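Reply to dn_fold:

You asked what the input looked like. This is it:
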Amino acid sequence: VQLQASGGGLVQPGGSLRLTCVASGSILGINRMGWYRQVPGKQRELVAIATRDGGIRMAGPAEGRFSISRDNATTLYLQMNNLNTEDTAVYFCNAYRYGQDYWGQGTLVTVSS
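and this is what came back:
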C-alpha cells in the first residue's frame, strides 16, 4: 500500500486547511485509514480514524474543529478548521491492512501569524 498525502501548508491562526490522502497499490482489505501528527521531539499522535464500515474516531485536540471523511476505499480527507499554533506538525496518513500499518510521507502544516 502506498499513501500520498497532500494539502499541508502555512496558515494563520483561525484558518482552515484540507488534507488529502490517496492510497494505491494493494488497497483491497484496507480496514481503516487515519491521520496522525508529529512534532519534533514528541511521539506521533492520533488525530482521527475512519473505518471501512463508516466508524469515526476523533482524538481530543481534533474534536469540534476537525472532521475526517472517506469518499471511497482509496481517498481520505481531513478538514481542519479554527487552526491554532499547537496544530503545527507533520501530518501522516495511515492505512491498516491485515494487521499491518502503512504510512505516507507526511505533509507539513504550519500555523503561524
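The CA atoms of residues 28 and 73 lie 8 Å apart.
Hope that clears it up.
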